[in-house]
Amino acid sequence: MELESRPGHSSHPGSRALISLMKNINGVLSPFAMACVCAGGLCLMSCWGNGNIEPVPAPFTTSAVTTYHNDNARTGQNLNEVTLTPAKVHSLKFGLLFVIPADGRVEAQPLYLPNLTIAGQGTHNVLFIATENASVYGIDADTGNGLWQVSTLGVGESLADDPACLGLIGTTSTPVIDPKAGPHGTIYVVTMSKDASGNQHQRLHALDVTTGAEEFGGPKDIQAQYPGTGDNSSGGNVIFDPGQQLERPGLLLLNGVVYTSWGSHCDIRPYTGWLIGYDQNTLAQVTVLNFAPNGSGGSLWMSGAGPAADAIGNIYALDANGAFDTALDAQGFPSGGDFGNAFLKISTTNKQLAVADYFEMMDQATENSKDLDLGSGGALLLPDLTDNAGHTRHLAVGAGKDGMIYVVDRDSMGKFNPNANNIYQEVQGALAGKVFSTPAYFNNTVYFGAVGDTIKAFPISKAQLSSTPVSQTPTALPYPGATPSISANGASNAILWAAENGNLAVLHAYDAGNLANELYNSNWAPDGRDHFGTGVSFFTPTIINGKVYVGTTAGVGVFGLTQP
Fold first, then answer.
1. Three-class SS string for 359-385?
2. Domains along the sequence of the chain with CATH
């Protein structure tokens, strides 16, 4: 593996630009300018007459990225990006600025808060990085300088055992931030660990965003039970086993509750699917729901996507393969409460979880037996749409391993019929591979990146998703496909960003209005200038304030404009 920071020699266009700015009237570089060029600072550094290198204060922004895929609808869009435009994002003006090193894999999406005052260090735009080594970092997002770092392992603890040899043994899920919680703002993080006696733990941490210090009496051990006789049950209750369960989905913060979602380590039984909520100010457990209490499986993992949530407090998730009770009660719900392979709507009335509605495909038994679970993808909530009859539709979209796009009416999802799919819309054959990602939304268009497929743009008209894409990228991406992210300035200058996995990760940028137009590719720059490391499983780019942040196996690559 090789990680490269921005070259510091004057052959780079950005270096040439700095040199030209720093020549004196005789065309000769001053000594302090030469020091700046040799330091490779480019636009990230300013040069003072004494030869010292100082970070350039970056422009502050009111924008923030505090949760997975930018918002609780999981749209992946940042509509306040004014710096990065299609005209500027190309290899002559845009590229790798630096790589932020970290002590482990960065599976979680990096998060961002602007204008944070750090005691004794001034005001900074701050990037938050969580690693599989159970560390959390606060980093100056514009210079890469460290502000604070903490380990979320307990005293005398070590990293947890790796039952599936995947390395997912520290912090895997994307944290969530409440900028108003605690005295300065709080980042909520889940970490797996092992104590000196060999006991496995899953814990919820609440950390001060300016110091990393634990808040609200944390951390909180994740413990739970739920009525049932399924996997790992005892005395009429299914028992949460922290060594068997994996918190893969991003955290969800909704109406004062932090929701954690649970799957397995590579389907190693016993396990079931859990959704567990904690009061964000006390870390007290307030609610628990199990999705296969009288069976097995039915986990939430969604390739790292956080559960989505609507404005009135309902949660939406795609459940993985597992037990489903085809015997239905009078309301059309599984009689045993087992929802394997379902598109779920979960109510949070009085902060208590319950499945309020669901959709299950008619051939669920076949899909379960072939491991074609819906739960490999994440759910996306669409904005209110008007159909052909003038009715307002509240829709959600998702896809999984069968490559079908499922569009559900959130007001009536369809439940289960063994003879037909009772669903608002089903798009067959539009995707060429399985989906291990979350789609993005922008300007009445949904973007999917399936495995071995091009990224495709599906327009929406009269509350119907087109069955054919209006544009697609020139090349296909290997496993796991891509979770696209969108940057735009309102409705203009939209760019679709995607990270390609591999021993040498690749950052792609496309014109969101015409995906056939690739604007930038980190392999295009000469001499490997923009290579930034090895890819991780399901990474999601973060685009904010003129920069793009992409996790790797050993840190975060930071991209931006290389010329002033």
1. EECCCHHHHHHCCCCHHHCCCEECCCE
2. 1-56 (no CATH), 57-561 (2.140.10.10)
